């Protein structure tokens, strides 16, 4: 009577199946890490935009005469800086507003990817885009609108400032 030979190749099949399962798990882990990096990047840009919007609000709070006179009501396009102010010829509230806006826009351009922003009076501040900020010039609130581009989409942050 002859003994049957043990099956051969079974361990090799198990090893290949294990390798395929582990490879799929590793690919899933890599995909999860890449997604996490993308979300983290978006959160970092949102945080930076919040800091810049707060900076604009602080600049307005530092110039209450300019806010009361409506100097911040429609700051849409960057203006050239007026001549330097001095102790002998101090800046007017309009010049301060224009300087604040000019410097704030320069910070936006330097710190955000394709960063743009407007400060305007707007009854419906949550609308608009970088190309058309949709500032209606009415209402009691000033809106600081920041737009930037990340990963093939445009993001925005709106901060409403009550003068």
What does this structure look like?
The protein has one domain (46-161). The protein has a four-stranded antiparallel beta sheet, with helices on one face. It starts with 9 loop residues before the first helix and ends with a strand. Helix 1 packs antiparallel against helix 3. Helices cover 47% and strands 16% of the residues. The protein is rod-shaped and about 115 Å long. The model has no long low-confidence stretch (mean pLDDT 84). A hairpin with a 2-residue loop joins strand 3 and strand 4 (153-161). By secondary structure, the protein is an alpha+beta fold.
How are the SSEs placed, and which strands pair?
Layout: H1 10-61, H2 64-68, E1 74-75, H3 93-111, E2 116-121, E3 142-150, E4 153-161
Antiparallel strand pairs: 1-2, 2-3, 3-4
Helix pairs in contact: 1-3
């Amino acid at each position: 009577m002859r003994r049957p030979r043990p099956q051969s190749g079974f361990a090799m099949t198990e090893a290949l199946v294990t390798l395929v399962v582990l490879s799929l798990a590793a690919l899933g882990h890599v995909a999860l890490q890449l997604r996490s990096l993308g979300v983290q990047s978006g959160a970092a840009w949102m945080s930076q935009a919040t800091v810049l919007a707060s900076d604009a609000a602080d600049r307005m709070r530092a110039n209450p005469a300019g806010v009361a006179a409506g100097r911040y009501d429609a700051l849409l396009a960057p203006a050239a800086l007026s001549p330097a102010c001095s102790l002998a010829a101090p800046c007017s509230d309009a010049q301060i507003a224009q300087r604040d806006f000019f410097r704030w826009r320069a910070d936006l351009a330097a710190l955000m990817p394709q960063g743009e922003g407007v400060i305007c009076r707007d009854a419906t501040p949550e609308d608009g885009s970088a190309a058309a900020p949709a500032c209606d010039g009415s209402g009691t609130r000033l809106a600081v609108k920041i737009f930037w581009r990340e990963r093939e989409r445009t993001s925005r942050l709106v901060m409403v400032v009550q003068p």
